[in-house]
Write a sequence for this structure.
């Protein structure tokens, strides 16, 4: 009996970690699988989830006086639990998918920075929220989710949201008993939003919504609008960066690495999902993408810090590791191993940057990690549009119809396979150039 209690305790204590590391992946796969090419409305849950997940951080970033991170963590767990339950009831009526996808998207945007910030604070007070033993327990907790994504769609639509809902309940119970925090929901009514961050949220949301809707609705007009809007956003960003760069509170290499690491995260999962679907079929995404991704996440949290400790220059280790992962990705039959290596170093870089941001005294404590995730998500958004540009250009150069970009998941011709390889190598070269530039700018950052 005591062994059962200890196991259940270990189980529940790992759920905040599991959710903060899988909420990007699980709803993504679930809502993607419910898309029906014969019903345009079925694309909306995926579009809404993905758009709110990527842009939702700007809402929190837009607060002049950020709400307490613990309160934000509890709010994200509450709305995530509601969202997963609504997604479960979506099997009864499709409208619930729409509402649930919005809630899950916001939860996925807010949960990682809030959970990380709370974990750092608890650790500074001597309370360890995760340990090596709990990481092993997390692997067991992750297995039902992995197995759920391999089931048939009708079963998956019930099993996966049920598991996620249970995990949200367990996570809320766990976090509620953290010793150094109390909820203070009244702080939620005292905030004043930053107009500039709300503008970024609106612009990015509109661009991403058009991009995703255009691709999934097979609408070239929406796609054109999305590209034009993003081009305008990009030019605006160049002007803004030029004007404010002298007031940056962080070194250039750190901002650039955060941005590029966001691009890398998008490259791993978004492009990886396309790549596996084209070469192996959508059903193979769990084994060829999701599993090595999860193993990379767990391994990184346990071992990435130890890998860094063997070298004098922390920045160089991150850059070289990411470069090695990109090299392996260039070899087609090493794809799952490459995803594991890339995820290991991408998550290791993210965790390392979390610590750097958390220790930055020039940024307000409540804004440190949201600033990091905001910059990272801008990199993720940028890479999505770069990926789309590369696909469009490659299709045109090979005299293939532009409409093929809407059907990549179902096309397995030699021309489409060659297109995906060209896009992959172009992305690898682009990111490698970025890594080299960051290494050059930050080469003296750790001369001590």
């Amino acid at each position: 009996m005591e062994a059962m209690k200890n196991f259940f305790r270990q189980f529940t204590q790992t759920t905040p970690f599991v959710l903060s590391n899988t909420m990007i992946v699980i709803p993504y796969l679930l809502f993607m699988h419910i898309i029906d090419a014969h019903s345009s409305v079925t694309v909306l849950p995926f579009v809404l989830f993905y758009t709110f997940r990527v842009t939702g951080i700007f809402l929190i970033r837009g607060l002049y006086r950020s709400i307490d991170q613990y309160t934000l963590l509890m709010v994200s767990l509450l709305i995530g639990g509601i969202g997963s339950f609504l997604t479960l009831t979506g099997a009864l009526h499709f409208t619930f998918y729409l509402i649930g996808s919005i809630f899950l998207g916001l939860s996925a945007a807010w949960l990682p920075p809030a959970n990380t910030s709370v974990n750092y604070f608890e650790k500074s007070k001597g309370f360890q929220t995760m340990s090596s033993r709990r990481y092993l327990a997390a692997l067991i907790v992750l297995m039902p989710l992995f197995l759920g994504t391999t089931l048939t769609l009708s079963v998956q639509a019930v099993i996966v949201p049920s598991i996620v809902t249970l995990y949200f309940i367990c996570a809320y119970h766990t976090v509620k008993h953290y010793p150094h925090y109390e909820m203070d929901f009244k702080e939620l009514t005292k905030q004043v939003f930053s107009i500039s961050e709300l503008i970024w949220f609106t612009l990015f949301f509109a661009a991403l919504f058009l991009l995703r809707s255009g691709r999934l609705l097979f609408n070239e007009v929406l796609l054109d609008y999305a590209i034009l809007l993003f081009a305008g956003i990009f030019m605006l960003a160049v002007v803004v960066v030029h004007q404010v760069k002298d007031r940056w509170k962080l070194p250039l290499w750190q901002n650039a690495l955060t941005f590029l690491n966001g691009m890398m995260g998008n490259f791993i999962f978004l492009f990886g999902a396309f790549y596996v679907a084209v070469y192996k079929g959508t059903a193979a995404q769990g084994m060829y993408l999701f599993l090595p991704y999860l193993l990379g996440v767990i391994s990184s949290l346990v071992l990435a810090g130890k890998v860094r400790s063997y070298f004098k220059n922390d920045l160089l280790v991150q850059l070289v590791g990411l470069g090695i992962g990109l090299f392996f990705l260039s070899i087609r039959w090493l794809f799952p191993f490459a995803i594991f290596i890339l995820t290991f170093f991408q998550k290791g870089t993210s965790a390392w940057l979390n610590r750097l941001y958390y220790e930055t005294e020039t940024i307000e404590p409540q804004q440190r990690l949201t600033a990091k995730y905001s910059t990272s998500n801008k990199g993720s958004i940028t890479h999505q549009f770069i990926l789309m540009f590369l696909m469009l250009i490659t299709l045109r150069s090979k005299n293939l119809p532009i409409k093929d970009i809407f059907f990549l998941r179902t096309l397995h011709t030699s021309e489409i396979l060659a297109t995906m390889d060209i896009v992959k190598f172009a992305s690898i070269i682009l990111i490698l150039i970025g890594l080299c530039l960051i290494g050059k700018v930050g080469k003296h950052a750790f001369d001590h």
The two ends are 53 Å apart (CA to CA). The chain has 16 helices and no strands. Residues 292 and 339 are 6 Å apart (CA to CA). Residues 188-192, 238-247 have pLDDT under 50 and may be disordered.
